[in-house]
Amino acid sequence: MAVIVAERPCEPAGASRPVASPAVEAIGVSHTYEGRDGVAVPAIDRIDLRVAPGELVALLGPSGCGKSTLLRILSGLIQPSRGIVTLAGASPAAARAAQGIGWLAQDDGLLPWLTVAENVSLPGRVGRRRAAVHGGAVQAMLRQVGLEDSARQYPHELSGGMRQRAALARALVAEPELLFLDEPFASLDEITRERLGDLLLDVRAARRPTTILVTHSVVEAARLADRVLVFSPRPARVIADVEINLDRPRRHDQAGFGTLVQSLKIELAGSGNHQ
Amino acid sequence: MTVPRGRDESRPYRFGLVGARFIAPATSAPGPGATSGLNRLSRLIPTVAFLAVILIGWELAVRLWQVPAYLMPGPSAVGARLVGDPLFFGREGLVTLSEALGGLIIGGGLALGTGLLMAQWRWLERALLPVAVVAKVTPVVVIAPLFVLWFGFDAWPRLLIAALLAFFPILIGAVAGLRAVPTAAREVLLTLDASTVDEVLLLRLPSALPQLFAALKVATTLALLGAVVAEWVGGDRGLGRAILLANSNLDTTTALAGVATIASIGMALIGLLTLLERRYVFWQAPLDRS
Known about the structure:
The structure holds 2 protein chains of 2 kinds. Chain A is an alpha/beta fold. Chain A is 29% helix and 24% strand.
């Protein structure tokens, strides 16, 4: 099995690829926020990126480099200081209403006073896309993430891994076309983390929502992503764009996997010298 | 420390407005922190023991030094006065209780509404908070006669004074609670394109409940106090009036029996609030319980 690791550093991500209409596009996005003492802190520096429909792109970078801020800018939660973001040609706000954005962060964000099933059915209660949650969707989602027996339990009765499963079910129950993940499994142990990574690939297999995964784990990016964008330390810049053509499911002992992880680690380590 | 509770499996998990959800019966299983009945009783031992030491010491001191009853009656005399005329204390206590509760509802409702608006718009907080502080620090003995002049001698001035005292702690609790929204849950709602009303009903109000309960406990005692003080100034009913009359007659025994009645009412209300808190804030330990 041939392993192709294509590298195109410091170039608009995906620019040379024949993409009709990117699902996610950022042009010249920079963001600066005001620090505690009123000093402007640059978080993101002139980022261009393109993500094709159905693609799973990992944003890999050192902790605190600004990649989570970038994800919030892409989803429209934060307005960038400069630059343009479009989701399938529309503004993030319009895209939230039209296509839906599934959101899952390191903190599960489950409402502690609602049961698991109530939490998962939340997308059917609010917003203009509530109709997208059809009857039986909640049950089906719970089954898919293996929580059908915990439907009536409350979040504080579940383990961390189960809570992330519930949050993943909530993110996908309205069948969004975009799935944004911010270090979703970072607080879990290694084994649970791998299992949930596999689960993520399983549950998105049917409809293949365009997925952006923010992570600081090289192995996680290598196991899950179609493409990895490597970021520099703050202010974040894209320093490498690595396409992964390895068969799935990917295993650590698979031919080419070790080389891939090594090359990503070298990119990440090299990024530190830019400072 | 949280203890998983038993769940009523027959309860449907569909949920409507947040209010409807909170009316849904909770199971009878104890909330976090609570354990078996025996354990709960044993927790009362320090309270009861301390109270007993105080009462016995007081009784002994009064008898030993033969203190006259108009200076300080013993607890047995106060108890005898209470038992001797339960209807009187019950009736006057009910008047004060209804004034305090009415004030709590008026003041608490206004404070919650104002808090909701203030949490949404910070400029409103900057505009209104100084006024609320001034109203709060102005002594009741100054406000009460004015309220009597403005609103007459019926129950209104007493209700409004209780409301005024209850307003401030609930306002502060509401604003703090409504602002301290869990970021992750809020981001989920924002990406779901939830409206501001949805955000308030589904997230802000429920997550403010612990702080609202803490504020409600403070406000309840203040409303009771406000009702009593208002009765001193203008009123022909209530425990405050009874205590004032007893004082002017040097009937200290009746005055202290009135105080004991107020204390019982206050403790009963706080106890009730604690029970409600355990039931509706089952997902975390109360703020004021270690």
